[in-house]
């Protein structure tokens, strides 16, 4: 009986740990003024910030460090969405 309970607890722990270990990415648009520059980029964000609103809070300071202003986060997604966005993001693919 004790082994069964331990096995069930271990299975539950592994099940709950799965989603927490998932990778999260966000695609976004940013700008610089004088002269106006725009870019589209893809960045990894922490798993806890895997919503567009939360990702914006994480990305804005990163971008501001290089003089960029975050315009908006378009979406958040897992690693399965990286390949389709890589060419569009160009030099800003996983830069920030």
TrEMBL record:
The keyword Signal applies. The keyword Signal applies. It comes from the Bacteria. Keywords: Signal. Residues 1-22 form the signal peptide. This is DUF4177 domain-containing protein. It comes from Fuscovulum blasticum DSM 2131.
């Amino acid at each position: 009986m004790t082994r069964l309970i331990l096995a069930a607890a271990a299975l539950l722990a592994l099940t709950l740990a799965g989603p927490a270990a998932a990778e999260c990415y966000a695609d976004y648009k940013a700008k610089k003024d004088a002269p106006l520059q725009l870019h589209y980029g893809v960045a990894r964000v922490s798993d806890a910030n895997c919503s567009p609103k939360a990702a914006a809070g994480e990305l804005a300071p990163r971008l501001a460090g290089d003089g960029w202003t975050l315009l908006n986060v378009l979406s958040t997604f897992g690693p399965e969405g990286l390949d389709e966005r890589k060419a569009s993001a160009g030099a800003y693919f996983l830069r920030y």
